[in-house]
Design a protein that fits this description.
There is one protein chain. By secondary structure, the chain is mainly alpha-helical. It is 70% helix and 0% strand. It has one domain.
Length: 214
């Protein structure tokens, strides 16, 4: 089945985005100077901690104090992953089984609602506004538009071209700003974990009389 114009644009955008990410990854792959300080802990243990237990809400101060936002963020990121999968599947030109499409629509609707709630919180909270830059708003709005496009495409196949156009914009934007963490999350967490693990900071050493944390 030949690709539609919107599917062709999406495929081209994904190719450009992939090339940009490969270039960025090569730049990040340059070796760092060897550290001078003697290690005080295990870099491997820090890396394991950063990729596992560090994500648990009780190991993050912001999550411990904002459980609702943590849950909303978890649902939002799950929906984003599903949206990207649906976007890639659209290039096959084959429809999904209707029950799966409706289940996906429910997930995308939930993620979109969570994203809008977190966006409203950013606007309403003076502390969050002070920490925000214009790109924070742009990235949030673009991801929200992609979720809305995916939701519309799941409910009505006629909305699929619009979803693909929005997906193409998202793919081209992703390597340029904060959305690049969709690809570099594991890379950055490994670097962070190895550094703090070697310094003996993470996993956090137990306090006398307490059980080990993490």
């Amino acid at each position: 089945m030949p690709l539609t114009p919107s599917a062709l644009v999406l495929a081209a955008a994904l190719a450009v985005s992939a090339a940009a990410f490969v270039t960025l990854r090569r730049r990040l792959g340059r070796p760092l100077p060897a550290p001078f300080a003697e290690p005080r802990g295990s870099a491997a243990a820090g890396e394991r901690w950063a990729l596992t237990a560090a994500f648990l809400p009780w190991n993050k101060e912001s999550s411990r104090h904002h459980a609702a936002s943590y849950a909303a963020g978890l649902l939002l990121h799950t929906a984003i992953a599903a949206m990207v999968a649906r976007l890639l599947w659209s290039l096959t030109g084959r429809p999904l089984p209707r029950p799966l499409e409706l289940a996906l629509a429910a997930l995308l609707a939930t993620g979109l609602a969570c994203g809008l709630a977190l966006f409203a919180k950013r606007l309403a909270n003076p502390a969050l506004r002070a920490l925000s830059v214009p790109e924070d708003y742009a990235a949030n709005l673009l991801v929200g538009a992609a979720l809305a496009g995916g939701l519309a495409a799941c409910l009505d196949p006629r909305a699929l071209p619009a979803f693909q156009w929005i997906g193409a914009a998202l793919a081209l934007y992703a390597p340029l700003g904060k959305l690049r963490h969709m690809v570099f999350l594991v890379t950055s967490r490994r670097f962070w974990g190895r550094f703090f693990g070697r310094r003996g900071v993470k996993p956090a050493p137990p306090v006398a009389g307490e059980a080990p944390r993490g």
